[in-house]
Amino acid sequence: MLSGLSWPEVAALLAAGVLLDLLLGEARRFHPLVGFGNLASAIERRLNKGNGRLPRGALGWALAVLPLTVLAGWLCGVAGALAHAAMLYFCIGLRSLRDHNLPIAAALRGGDLPAARELTGRIVSRDTFDANEADLAKASAESLLENGNDAVFGTLFWFAVAGGPGAVLFRLANTLDAMWGYRNARFLYFGRVAARVDDALNYVPARLTALSYVLLAPGTPGKRLAWRCWREQAPAWSSPNAGPVMASGAGALGLALGGAARYDGEIEQRPPLGQGAPATAGDIERAWRLVWRTTLLWLVLSALVAAAIVMAPEVWHA
């Protein structure tokens, strides 16, 4: 392992990080990712001007991500498993997904559209000020499916590969993509490196997430639909990683997602995702359960591999 941890240690720390996240949730004060966002904004204001924005963007990415990743590696070398577990806790966002999305479902069930619009506007970039129930449920379900990969499974994957520093590298790169990876006049060149690095780091985790959604779809017909949506719909999406994740997830849930959404007052016609009925409040809860069950699947699989290594070490080290 790149982290120097054995696989049984990795499996135990994965479970510990998820448990800490569920018990403690996001840090209320001085969350490292919030501090990183402030640092990234300062770097962007300093470098994103004048000519040469592409190399300036590369420099900005390196200044924001690499020193903190090196620091994470040093801390893990000093504090060992404790530092690894703490870094995974600060990087993973499973409970955050639940805490931000299930209140939207509750507001929709109670008929409180203004509250549902405000809550949804906190987690998506699309306009929500006059969205109806179907629009809000669709936005929340899509956010859960996509961020299940970005906030949970990508972090778990890179922790398994490189321990705490791997989780830190992934989450910082993913955060920079969310801040800089826009195709507009301000970020088209400056944010290109951030977008491409995130695409590369997310490539394998996104496909493992999509495969997990397929495996957890209900029944053989549901699995076939999720697989077909992934293969047929994902190529139409501009993001090479969001497409597989959201298409397979929408198919697994039997929902019709994607399509029209309004950004900055303009209607954007996005490719379709999945197949079935429009989303409702109950489908937000179903999307959360799919993300939760996928988390459990990954933890169980890592534990099974660890048990196999412990019981037959000569086979794995041959």
From TrEMBL:
A GO CC annotation given for this chain: plasma membrane
Ranges that cross the membrane: 59-92, 296-316
A Gene Ontology biological process term: cobalamin biosynthetic process
Membrane topology: Multi-pass membrane protein
Family statement drawn from the similarity comment of this UniProt entry: Belongs to the CobD/CbiB family.
Listed name of the protein: Cobalamin biosynthesis protein CobD
Species for this entry: Pseudoduganella lutea
Principal localisation: membrane
Pathway this chain belongs to: Cofactor biosynthesis; adenosylcobalamin biosynthesis
InterPro entries: Cobalamin_biosynth_CobD/CbiB
Keyword Hydrolase (UniProt): no
Cellular compartments annotated: Cell membrane
A GO MF term: threonine-phosphate decarboxylase activity
Keyword Membrane: yes
A UniProt-annotated Pfam family: CobD_Cbib
Keyword field: Cell membrane, Cobalamin biosynthesis, Membrane, Transmembrane, Transmembrane helix
Function description: Converts cobyric acid to cobinamide by the addition of aminopropanol on the F carboxylic group.
